[in-house]
Amino acid sequence: MTADPRRALIVRACSRGGAGGSPTAVVLDGGPFTAEERRAVPVACGTSHAVFVSARDGRASLRFFTAKGELPACGHGTVAALAVLADRSGLPEYRTTLHAGGRSFAGRAVRRAGAFEARFDPGPVTLRETTASERDLVLPLFPAPAGPPVVAFVGRPRMLIPVPSRAGLAAVSPDLGRLRRACDRLGLLGCYLNTVPTAEGRTAARMIGGPPCRRSVR
């Protein structure tokens, strides 16, 4: 049995007001697919990544793939998988135990106005200072940051770069080819630009770059 992309469901994970989101291919795992077959699914579906779901006895195992290979974790993929599982259950509120990246954690999805609001425990986030090589390769592609960038680990590392305003965030338009090459060289998933939090703790953010290059707004 092969991983047929025609069996994939495309979910726009993390949309806002029914718009935007990150298109994710979700495959209800039905066979012993090879890594090559799994890598081919996001390419065929035109998405940056795909999640393969094996559900049994109230638990669901998730595996995430891009065209380059397997990811240890993927937030958009986890949200998309929860939405598909909740839709298949027919329940107004769906709960399960998820297993991915070597850990088990709770997942929940609630049906709301034709869509699903999904939540899960992302696990611990670790931070470290950026290296000189990371700063030299990445920061020239963006306007001057509003504070020191850091590298965060949730599965794969990504660089967090603060910017001063929403207008500045929206205006960012780096050379995506150069950024992808820099991320590939440094082993980064991409760059997550965020505004400085307001007094109420609100912030806006964009994920830009990485293998394969992608751009999303939240």
From TrEMBL:
It holds the Pfam family PhzC-PhzF. InterPro entries: Phenazine_PhzF-like, Reg_chr_condens. SUPFAM superfamilies: Diaminopimelate epimerase-like. This is PhzF family phenazine biosynthesis protein.
